[in-house]
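Appendix B. Raw example, untouched.
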Amino acid sequence: MSGAGAGQEPAGFLTGSERKAVRDAGLLFQLLANEIVGDGPTRAADLAELTAAVHVIQRAVMAQAAARAYPGQYRPLGEVIPTFDKDGRPLPPGRAMNAKPGQEHARG
């Protein structure tokens, strides 16, 4: 199926490793909440901050399915979105769509 690499689920689904990463992030939150964060006056605020951080990680991992399903629109973690010239031909790595020869786009 298109978008699936060796050992990966079809486009639109999470791999086993991705599902594990999402689950483990939730388990990390439970460990922090139950055994590390104190019961003082800042507990609620600290848990809210940790909740947001865990959700960022989980959403980044879950976005992998969208990146496989729509490779020209969403960027997989560690990769770049391929860019094409006005005629639909792939640009060389590092070239932005309207860049002049020698100019490179930011890689992040």
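End of appendix B.
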